[in-house]
Write a structure and sequence with these properties.
The protein is mainly α and about 130 residues long. The chain is about 55% helix and about 5% strand. The chain binds zinc ion (ZN).
Amino acid sequence: MRITYKQKCSRCKKNFVLVTWKNRFPLCYECQKNDLSGEIKDPEMKKLLNLPEEYYKESSFLRSIKINYLKFGTLSEKQIEFFKKAVQKMKEEREHPKVVQEPIQFESDVSLRSLRKAQKETKAKKSKKVE
Ligand SMILES: [Zn+2]
């Protein structure tokens, strides 16, 4: 499972940034917008980095890779590999959106008890199926 942290943008201190690793200086999309709008000459890189805006809005990782390329004009094989994987994953998530799981809130002990009971029952059903 991917662990995501919600951190406040270290530049504008206003927007929250969703990061997948502990980042001491997370920047939001709005603050990185200018850094992201550079010209890519390499056709192969253009193909790789030319993603719908939403991808960059959503992922600080994708932003960091693109900005890295625009800054240094090159990416390591590992960076390209991770970039492709991240894009692939996001594409899959878009095609098959997961049900957003809201934390279950119990109004009382009773509902908790009934849930446990239900869990036990499904467990029992499952073990029956195995037999
Ligand atoms: Zn910001």
